[in-house]
């Protein structure tokens, strides 16, 4: 007997996805940049919209913040400069004074001397502060760190005379004064970071039968490395704030400090503000470099507050 044919045909397990209709925006978005740049503005707008919506919200927010912050800073500085009126030199005068300082007063060499001094002070301050902070795991040494932190309220008046008697030359005097001004702040913040380590981390390390030195290395030193780098970035700015005063005490090696004091003595305020701009620019670059160092060394801690 002939078999009966089924009344309905079997459907495939999965249907192919519908092929999207190419729109001008999708076609233009696939073009090379050199060709897309020559497109009319209407087509460029159609291309930019889908590309912008394709970005993740976090990436779009990061791009917007990186663009908005410099613009807001520049706008605020411009408003303050305009509000100051004749109290501040005109921007053109400041730029002309900067060129004169570079050509006739050896600004490059003075800047190099200040950079080396500040870098050396940051290194010594970081070594002393981190060492003192890590010693707070030992209860008998905590009062010592507490005494060092109280030096934040002590100025350099009086101490400068003591350092002058102890130092063998002007470079060592300037170095000790910078380290004395930076270390109490760095040590205080870092000791607080060490004290905030959860007790469970120490218990976990002991449960793994680690030696006491290994516990300090894993939990205290490596466990707070990201916070140490962030605090280093924040406290390194103190060196630039103190630099003018410290270099003015001992002028033998030069630097930005003596140059700035000499220009202020002769009331050449355009040159003074040109040097202030140099210090701000170098300090901002230093801050950015230390932030990049932290992200490179501790990428897992990005966004973590110290």
CATH fold-level assignment of one domain: MetI-like fold
Order of helix and strand elements from N to C terminus: HHHHHHHHHHHHHHH
Derived structural class: mainly alpha
Largest sheet: none
Question: Count of DSSP E strands?
Answer: 0
Name the helicity range.
Answer: over 70%
What is the overall pLDDT average?
A: 79
User: What is the second-level CATH architecture of one domain?
Assistant: Orthogonal Bundle
The number of helical elements comes to 15
Distance between the amino and carboxyl termini: 86 Å
Outline the structure in words:
The chain is mostly helical and 306 residues long. The chain has a domain at 90-301: MetI-like (MetI-like fold, Orthogonal Bundle). It is built from 15 helices and no strands. Residues 1-9 and 11-29 have low confidence and may be disordered.
Provide a short characterization of the protein structure:
The chain has helices at residues 24-29, 33-36, 41-54, 57-84, 91-104, 107-134, 142-149, 159-166, 170-195, 199-207, 212-221, 225-235, 237-249, 256-265, 269-297. With 306 residues, the protein is mainly α.
Looking at this protein, list some descriptive labels.
globular, MetI-like fold, 306 residues, mainly alpha
Secondary structure topology:
Layout: H1 24-29, H2 33-36, H3 41-54, H4 57-84, H5 91-104, H6 107-134, H7 142-149, H8 159-166, H9 170-195, H10 199-207, H11 212-221, H12 225-235, H13 237-249, H14 256-265, H15 269-297
Helix pairs in contact: 5-15, 6-9, 6-13, 7-9, 8-9, 9-12, 9-13, 10-11, 12-15, 13-14, 14-15
């Amino acid at each position: 007997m002939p078999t009966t044919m089924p009344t309905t045909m079997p459907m495939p397990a999965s249907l192919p996805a519908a092929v999207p209709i190419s729109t001008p925006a999708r076609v233009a978005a696939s073009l090379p940049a050199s060709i897309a740049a020559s497109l009319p503005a209407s087509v460029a707008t159609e291309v930019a919209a889908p590309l912008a919506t394709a970005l993740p919200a976090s990436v779009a927010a990061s791009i917007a913040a990186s663009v908005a912050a410099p613009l807001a800073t520049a706008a605020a500085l411009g408003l303050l400069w305009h509000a100051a009126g004749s109290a501040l030199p005109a921007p053109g005068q400041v730029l002309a004074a900067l060129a004169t300082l570079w050509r006739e007063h050896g600004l490059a060499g003075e800047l190099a001397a200040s950079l080396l001094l500040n870098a050396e002070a940051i290194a010594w301050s970081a070594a002393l502060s981190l060492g003192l902070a890590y010693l707070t795991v030992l209860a008998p040494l905590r009062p010592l760190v507490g005494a060092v932190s109280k030096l934040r309220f002590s100025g350099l008046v009086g101490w400068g005379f003591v350092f002058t008697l102890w130092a063998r030359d002007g470079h060592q005097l300037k170095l000790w004064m910078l380290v004395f001004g930076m270390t109490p702040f760095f040590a205080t913040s870092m000791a607080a970071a060490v004290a905030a380590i959860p007790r469970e981390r120490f218990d976990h390390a002991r449960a793994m039968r680690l030696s006491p030195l290994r516990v300090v290395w894993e939990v205290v030193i490596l466990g707070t490395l990201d916070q140490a780098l962030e605090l280093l970035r924040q406290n390194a700015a103190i060196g630039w704030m103190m630099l003018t005063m410290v270099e003015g005490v001992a002028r033998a090696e030069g630097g930005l400090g003596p140059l700035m004091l000499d220009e202020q003595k002769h009331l050449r305020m355009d040159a003074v503000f040109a040097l202030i701009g140099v210090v701000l620019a170098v300090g901002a670059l230093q801050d950015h470099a230390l932030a990049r160092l932290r992200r490179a060394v501790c990428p897992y801690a990005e966004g973590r507050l110290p």
